[in-house]
Amino acid sequence: MVSSRFLIRKVIPVVLFLVCIILLSRRLPVEQREITPEVLDSVIEESDPDRVTGSPPDDQVTYWEEHVAKDIRYAGERDNFVFIKCMKCATQTVAGVLRRYAFTRRLNVMLPRDYNIYLGWPYLLDEVDYRPSEETFNCLIEHAVYNRTIMKPLFPSDTQFITIIREPWSHFKSTFHYFKVDKIAEIKAKDPLVEYLKNIRNYDSIYKHHNSYPYRFCIPDGFSVTRNLLSHCLGMPLGFPQDRDDISRNEVSVYSYITQLDKEFGLVMIMEYFDESMIFLKRLMKWSYKEIVYEKVNIGNYTHDTYPDSIKKKHKKWSPIDYIVYDHFRRKMESQIRNGGLAFQNELKKFKQILQDVNRFCKSVKQSLQFTSKITLKEFTFSGYECAFLSEDVNHLYLLQRRSDADMTKKIKSYKRTC
Question: Which residue of 30, 185, 371, 379 is surrounded by the most CB atoms within 10 Å?
Fold first, then answer.
């Protein structure tokens, strides 16, 4: 039996906090939330022909602008960046940091048309995928396949290109469960992941087949979510769509492409070194600690079983390019950490302490509902409202889209290639 004291002290305050966030943010119906496989069946295409451009932003946008928008800017901070959001690499957590920055600085963000969530992904970016702007874009945050030739002319010359990648085996497990590969490929086995790897070409072809299209999450026919997915997001030509080259069997071309990526990206973050990566992001963009405070979101809910090396090798053979890409940038990250010496370790230690202090404060806000309260650290002040804005219960992408609606001066044509 749950004691009444536990309910009063622990459960009820959290429930009240969530209710307050919902009321303050006027949470959207399911149709307008960021789409996930779990809610795919209830998603409708958001393309309102009667939507009036140039209309005032809704109360949700106004509310957050009043309580978290920045009036003070730090000297030298950079606003121009392109974030390549690789699938299932803690990118939603990083995107939360970047969206909050873009909202509080009122940056001109390249956004998907209508209320789509992808910028053409898994296809290369096309002008039909994003909302046009009369002003130069500051940043890109949503899912898009990297291509320097297409993207560079759309952003200022000092734009920094950033991404985050993940150890390929753990990445495979995450994507396998997230995209429900076992269910769509109708794998009948005690351990579907092992069975998939034992008959990978067969199950992959079932998943990619047109007959499976109604059950896939925004994935077009012929696209594999388990083979070199990181490399595809980073723009490497791997034969999708069919009119693109496939350099996967040309070792010289693969390494040449990785070398080029290394030159073009200001930062390739590593999920296994997440806090270290956030420090490098802070340094690159000349931001303060406050701008990189985060809350982990979109964490996969599946059993983290261990597997023998013989099973892991099957995936490495199936998806070898991702391992090459990851090994290159992980080694680079580890070298940067070593070269940072004691100064970097002290900076990292300070950041971890800040995260701990802010998370502890935000937990107390959830219990007390004192949104006007503040915590003053040596580095910055953080309010209860900012705790609420940090929460994944606030749809930052929707806020940016609604504000974009208000800024439009003319109607744009609706378009939807994927999601």
Answer: 185
